[in-house]
Amino acid sequence: MTTLRRAAVFVSVLACCAAAVRGQENLELGKMWTFENPPLAYLEQEYGFKPTSEWLDAVRLASLRYGNGCSASFVSPKGLIMTNHHCAREHIDQVSPEGQDWGMTGYYATSYESEVRVPGLTVQQLIAMRDVTAEMNAGVTDDDDVATVDRKREANRQKVLEAARKEKPELRPEIVTLYNGAMFQLYQYKVWNDIRLVCAPHLKAAYFGGDTDNFTYPRYCFDFTFLRAWENDKPADTAAHYFRFSESGPKEGELVFTVGNPGSTGRLLTLAQLERMRDVYYPIVLETIAGAIAAMTEYAKTGAKAEQEVRNSMFSLANTQKAFTGYFSGLLDAERMERKRAAEATFKAKIEGLPLAKGRYLSAWQELADVARAQKELEPKRRLQMLTFGAGNSMSKVLELADIVVRASHPDVSPQGQKNARRIAGEFEIEGTPFEQAAAKRLFVDHMNRAKKWLGKDDPYLQAVLAGKDPAARFDEIEQGSKLRDKAFVAQLLEGGHEAVTKCDDIAIRIALAVVPMAQRNYREWEALATRERVHGARIGQALFAAYGTKVSPDATFTLRFSDGVVKGYEYNGTVAPWKTSMYGLYARHSEFDGREPFDLPKPFLDRRASVDLDTPVNFVSTNDIIGGNSGSPVINTKREVVGLIFDGNIEQLPNRFLYDEKAARSVSVHVRAIVEALRKVYDAGPLADELVGSR
After folding, report:
1. DSSP-derived 3-state class of residue 259
2. What is the pLDDT of residue 395?
3. Is 377 exposed, middle or buried (0-12, 13-18, 19+ CB in 10 A)?
């Protein structure tokens, strides 16, 4: 038996022994439970509720992963899907007819025939799970270096996926890494690819309060959208797996569950890793986002068409900015970081108490500290020594094309990378979008000033790009002096290969020739560090699993989880936040701000005020553990009835990304009664409301 196999047996034995141990033990790892390892004993002890396998299967099959970043669920036997408006926003814009703005005005399909297909949109339903840890570790030994371990596991991954595709070609397989690599699961999904828009409220109702109220509470948002899965050109038959709508919604103190796909958490990261993110990663990324938002805000003021062009990007970036600021605040909180230090000490002490495991795992913390130290030094170079700009926008289309042309034949770039660059170069539109044309100079200057701050004015990257000149003046020189807008010239360079490129005297090409090797070197060094981080991070996960088994929750992986919590208000700002808000508060907020944006209700809400039941709850809070990716998650009771729809967390919840705490952290949901009330009283969507409540 190899050492690795002995370790696997040892872990299995310890997992069984850990059953009597309370899982959290001050590790603050949260409550994002997987369906293959539900914490049945914990749920029974904590709430007196022990879900059956039938309950868990029904919940899993009614839940969906929406697109590439959200959650959703089936809420009728006819394929009706519920998610957030902010998850569907880009899809609503995508299918809006020319000259119409359904994102702003809302949409309701009065018949099946008027439901509009969203090209490219899919939802995924988790059909099966299987433990493939042994297959993923096949051939891996303790004598392998980190690169070899990583390579062997990747080869094993491809074998498992290939076998799964052959066995069940109708399902999409995915390898899920849990506990940093202590466990691997094969998840298999049914993919629904005919998805049609049914109903979306006005943007000003869905996003009431705008970014001002984002990640806050009390809230008054109607952040819901309904779509429908179709199959064989008719509404899908989902009678076997959907959530019924609750008639009354939740009660204060009630046990509820969120079911969705939390994106990522870092609760198993070491203190050294968190300090690296605090000192370098978040400061640089937040500065970059702020620059992009400022450019978009300025551009949006130039007209309605411009505002619509950048609206979704602005909302997305503003959301990311606020979320990242919240995550960052947790890392800046000395008390919270001290709790992390204490939790890490508790964890290490637990490992030291396991003689067989002590030598195997404890060195992982020092290895990861060494990696974090190297990453801290490399991070500014990796993020700033580049010619393309993040956040989906270009700081110079000329420099971006120059980067692509140089990569198409550069010996530092892999053959596949060269091939990709040639393909992209042939499709490249150097003029860019109207926003990119208008904002490029501003973004270029912003990036160069940030590079000066983090890299120092004598950095070779800055010397290559700026040549000692003012960023604004240099931008004009590059844009006006390059010949890359001439497609024939670009084609000639691509045809001539590396020799022609190196002999080219074009100003943008000369800059790219200097910068591409820097970027490639940074990439290789970062990938080597990332490999070390993955392998030693897996050892931390293995240590956790050895000590606690599945009694603790693994970090989020944008795969299906369920989280337990209770409906509960909280203390804040010297007062108390109520567990629910109401229509009274919605109209009061509009009135108190004199109907000024972003607290201006759309006209139908104002016109129908007399018919709306003002006692209707709008939003509510609960202690469920969520993060980005959970948007669109249904909130259900023990009867598997929908009582709400997750759309946000409060500010206090954001630091939970790294260290879980539920004292004031809350998930924020749309109340089911608000959804039904708006459909009936504001949108004249009675048939849709009937479909929802008729499914009880």
Report:
1. strand
2. 87
3. exposed
User: Which of 695, 669, 467, 656 is closest to 28 using CA atoms?
Assistant: 656
| Domain boundaries of the chain, sorted by first residue | 31-122+193-266+554-696, 271-530
The answer to whether the beta carbons of residues 381 and 387 sit under 8 Å apart is no
Structure-token match 């890392």, residue found: 331
Which residues are bridge partners to 258 per DSSP? Answer: 563, 635
Q: pLDDT value at position 116?
A: 98
Q: How would DSSP label each residue in 156-188? A: HHHHHHHHHHHH-TTSEEEEEEEGGGTEEEEEE
Helix (H, G, I), strand (E, B) or coil at 117: strand
- Does the pLDDT at position 19 exceed 60? no
Question: What are the DSSP calls for 204-244, one per residue?
Answer: HHHTTTHHHHTT-SS------EEEEEEETTEE---TTS-PE
Residue with tokens 């293959």: 36
What is the CATH T-level fold of the domain 31-122+193-266+554-696, as seen in this structure?
Thrombin, subunit H (2.40.10)
CA 231-258-652 angle, 5° bins? 135
C-alpha distances in Å from residue 62, one per residue of 67, 76, 556: 16, 10, 20
Helix (H) or strand (E) holding 687: helix 686-693
What's residue 392's pLDDT? 45
Would you say residue 229 has pLDDT above 70? yes
Phi/psi region, residue 636 (left: phi>0; alpha: psi -120 to 50; beta: rest), is beta
Give residue 554's pLDDT.
95
Percent pLDDT > 90 in the chain is 88
Q: Kindly report, residue by residue over 473-510, the tens digit of the pLDDT.
A: 999 999 999 999 999 999 999 999 999 999 999 999 99
